[in-house]
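Sharing a chain and its predicted structure for anyone who wants a worked example. Both blocks are below, sequence first, tokens second.
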Amino acid sequence: MTKEKNIVEVHIPSVLGYEKVAMDSASAVAKIMSFHKNRIDDLKTAVAEACTNAIEHGNRLKRNTMVLVTLSMSKESLEVKVRDAGDGFTAKLDKPAIENQVEGTQDTRGWGVFLIKNLVDELQFEPQPEGGNVTRMVIYLNRE
């Protein structure tokens, strides 16, 4: 027997600012699922970061290359997949060295993956056999 899932897909162009459309869509779905406000805020930040990475790094700001965001709802969780057309990357899951950033010896960017990892319950990066990458995030309903 398969578990029934409701699925919402959002296609956004690779233009900075459109990550807010995906963020708002994820928020709306999470509200329908009765997620706690704090978890919705975590989800919004994680989705915005994942979409920004897909827009900038995966699709290299090519406005006609779309980012696909898939929201899959189950009774216990919301799975979010953010798909881009990029070549893949090595995720840096460790906390960036803020001391080096303050001193100017390291780029002040690079917090996105670290943030996502700490805001969701599951995080995976999945290169696709046909090309592109998927950032898969899961957030559980029963956690505040």
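Comments welcome. The first strand starts at residue 6 and ends at 13.
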